[in-house]
## 1
Amino acid sequence: MFGRQKSSVTVIVKAAFEEARLRGDRRLGTEHLLLGLLHHDEAARALGVDLAAARAALEQLDRAALRMLGLEVGELPDTPRKHPAVPATALTSSARAVLNQAIKATTVKTRDAEVPRHLALGLLAQKSPDPVAQLVDQLGIDRAAIRARLA
């Protein structure tokens, strides 16, 4: 289902780190991997969601979490603040596990074509309280339908 694109693994991971940086997060989590995966056109089509919708859903989840703590955040500026880059070693244990699993499920020869599919499947398999599970629920992604399509 996912065709070969120029170094898709690298593109997805770099995009995930950039998404984490844009949000001002200090670590790369599974939610950032999903955002990075949505930079891959075929993955976004397969999941039935676009990057802007995923970013908006993640912001809604953040605001809800802050409200639970008694904090209300007003309107945020359209242009993101300048945040430092997220260190390459700053992956959450869950993000590291999903990424490693996706890479190990492929061969070197098929890696670029297959990692996006395995990464999508790994992210869909995450359970709450993992941030990506909450994001998938917020986006209304049908896990079973997507798994059946990608398997």
Note: The chain has eight helices and no strands.
## 2
Amino acid sequence: MPNQSRPATLKSMATELGLHVSTVSRVLNGDPTGVERAASAEVIARIRALAKELDYRPNTQASNLKLRKSQEICVLMPRLTDLVMATIYDSIDSAAEQAGYLTFVSNTDDQQPRQMARAEHALRRSVAGLIVGDSHTGDTQPLLDLLARKQIPYVLVSRQIAGHLTAACDDELGGWLAAEHLYRLGCREVAILAGERHASTGADRTRGFIRYYREQGISLRPEWILNGPFDSHTGHQQGAYLLALNPRPQAFFAVNDFLAIGLMGAARDKGLQPGKDIAVVGYNDIPLANELIVPLSSVRLPLAQMGRQAVELLLKRINGESAESTILTPQLQARASSAVLPKAG
């Protein structure tokens, strides 16, 4: 018997059985056109029995390198602590599994060098394709340029970059809807918690919001448009700063719900109540938004659908089919945090 202190290989089993390694490979790799030509029924049975006895596991990475194909999809996400990104990934994983693919996720911390390193690691595994959730705005896209040059199937999710296939939401429209809501409420002095400058999501939402007010003949104060990370800590800090101004903004648009929740915490600390003293609108409509003491108005995105669409587009690219970007439609969910016109600060 072969040395069982090491995992069984095609070569070791071929030696044990007195067969050529290619014969064992055809049988165990399930080549439907080669199995019957490779061996008799008796030999096939012997090979499979030994593989079962030794608990043989195919080396999928080696097979992928040889065949230049894989059933794995790499998903690059900026951070999985973000509930929105985690929700999108969950739907990606489910849709991929239904299509016969496995996914693995790499957390890039929204840093381009880390993104490139994680992607190159995935390419060494000969993945079938990549879904990219952390592309940056601007003309320079090192990773996307690399994937296009190597003809690796890829698709963006939740981010939009001109010239690249994506499954995303119309974030500019979402910002426009938030602005329309606050304007019709009577709010004219409005601040924006705009998120990180490099993220297309925050930039598009901010652009749509500003555009609506400009169309009404109102220019928002640039010093009231603050950039920073997409988290509640930043929302609290920026909210504390803006609420301490004299005059202060009547209303606040935060480009994600965590920024809005942090801002509402800063309002609480100052004895102010959203929906009474100030108006607040967030973005993404995470489940927590409706469960707060003062339910948060928010722009709802079809996150699960976005993930499914990303997989569908990627599979088209993997199969060599033509594909066009899918841009989903957001909806405003008005709640108590923006129920009344606050007095000007």
Note: The mean pLDDT is 88.
## 3
Amino acid sequence: MKWNVKEWLRRYGSAEVLSVLATLGGAFLAFELTRNSVSTALAGTWAGNVAYFGYILALDIGQTRRQLHAAGQAYTFRTLLRNLRALVVEFGLAEVFDSFLVRPALMYYLPKAVGNLAGGILLAKILADVTFYIPAIVSYELSKKRLRRF
């Protein structure tokens, strides 16, 4: 597999920035409302996911719309389903493991271990991203040839 670091940074970089902000915001809000570590971990995980995947989906839709418009074709509901399928292939395996096990567990334990909510959540996010991006990038590279041609 070719190392496409610039492409990966373009694809994932802005989504990561949004995800960090949403993760911290969701975790802090949940902590302030509940003072519960489980709620804090889950809220941080899912707020980050919504921001991340919302941005990636918007990016993919925009790119596909431009491609189709240049070819004189319309973006349809079927095209949206193809965009969604490509995302499931790219992130599915990595996301299930990440969102239901790795990230919430790290966001639960690390703030306690480091003695700081923000530092623990941020450290948890960084560590979880390592286990997330390895399978996600491999899947993305494999899916480009078949699932991202519109």
Note: Residues 5-147 form one domain.
## 4
Amino acid sequence: MAQGLIEVERKFVPGPDTEKRLQELGGTLVHRFTFRDTYYDTTELSLMRSDHWLRQREGSGWELKCPGKAGIPGPHTEYIELTSEPEIVAQLRVPTQEKAPAKLIVYLQRFRPEDYQRLLESTLSEKPRGAKHSDRSLDYNVTS
């Protein structure tokens, strides 16, 4: 992202007639983009619990999303997105603080409670630290 730009992301749940209504207003599908993210964490989910999200995006490489500067009022959260492997490694070596649940956790709780429950249960398993989650149903295809 270029210096000086701010990315604004707003989430909403479309109603059953949203697509039809958009078409009535003259909207058309310009293009569809699909990608796959694989998220990594420790067995204890220490990254997720500190609101850090380490992922490998298919075809794009590694990304770490972590909390940005605090103190900006309003209903939003600022994240830093690191894509350089040395920066990611350096950030992961700094102790992290507990934060409010991230949007992926809230999504799982609301819309995929079975996967959220399995994620919680995985903390009890005996996988090695830093192991990739073996349940492929936690890999998400995102279409935008």
Note: Strands lie at 34-40, 53-57, 61-67, 79-82, 140-143.
